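User: Quick one: structure for sequence A, then sequence B.

Assistant: Sequence A:
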Amino acid sequence: MRLDRGVAAQRVAVADAVCARVGLDGTELPARLPATADVFAAGGTSLAHVAVIVRLLGSPPATRLAPEVWAGAEIQLADAAAGYTPREVQQWGTALLEALDADGPEPDDTPPPLVNELRLTRFAAKPGGRLVGRYDDAALFEAVAAVLDAKAAPLTADEGRSRVERKAEALAEVCGWVLEHAELPAVGGRRPVLTVQIRLADLETRARAGMLEFGGQLSPAALRHLACDCGVVPVVFDGAGQPLDVGRLTRSIPDGLRRAVTARDRGCAHPGCDRPPSWCEIHHVLPWEHGGPTALGNLVMLCKAHHRQIHTTDWAVRLRGGLPEFIPPPWIDAEQKPRTRPRTWNPTRAREGPTRIAEFA
């Protein structure tokens, strides 16, 4: 009949439940679910309804019921199927069986061990990969869920990411923060870092790709995003690919300049975003590969989500009067009116001239 395996299995299960049976001696026997069979034969329910009833009556709570109680439950489920959707029958029937099976399963002094697992699988034909996790330990799951719930909230009123996209990026953002700020065990004698391998000549000529240790090849936009604010370790190779010299780690944004940007922007500069400086990166307004200088007048502080937004969408940022302002794409604002984050401003102090800001470690 050229049916998918799941559809074929469903039809076989339904037929086994609602069709009359024949005994070994040729005697015709009633259907295994007689009340359901009557409703189904009268056209009062569908294959999906019967499949739900079959699953419910084969569940552990149903198998613990006495035969007469089980038969009564089947009659009630058949009646419910005539007026409910399959999903509603599933919910209603689950509650019914739990009520009938008031004692529940026998106590088990040796419960099965908790299973906590997370699988990371790299895509074979494209960059990136898949994470599939399971947490039987409620405390561990609650810790993960609480962090993602806090970090996956919409950042601004113009948030264009779906909730699942925000959660995925929140997990990566938290991991990135840990890589930058937390003490982690050494891997091969060094602190875990996000490493991109690319030739310097390629990087200086608008490289179109780079290679990650785990995630595979980077897109040009992702590479430019990382290159905005990164640490660079020069490694010199000979013609045979053997490393000849490894230099020191240097930041693309010097520490003093980073402090100046922090003092000006005080966190993500995007209007409506409240990410603090420790969760932010530094973005070159005019890309450095296009000749943009690494100077205060060309740098702006952005959280990871808005940094990625500037690199991958039609949002734009510029500095006007030394302060960042953001230009939305036409589909958000047809007039593309620049937006800035509100700032506390004291006209009296402004007339007195610049204020020196001291920072104490």
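Sequence B:
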Amino acid sequence: MSWAWEYEPSEDQVVGGAPPALVAEVEKKADELVRAAAALYLDGTVYQGPSPRGENVLVPGGMFFCQVVPRHERVYVFQITGW
């Protein structure tokens, strides 16, 4: 398994009617978070500690809520909020 990000529970439910420009910013930032997590948790599948807390991440035009789960080697994006 290798590090990646995904929408949880599904892209349709998380993205909803968010503007395409906001979704592009969210996905760009999610890619950055994946690279950072992969560097921090070199082999996440054997990680034994607690998963980091979920966090709100600001992007141009809004924010999103996500959580890094090292044992899954995933960054899950749960909600997108635009303004």
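The first helix runs from residue 11 to 15. The mean pLDDT is 96.

User: Thanks, that's what I needed.
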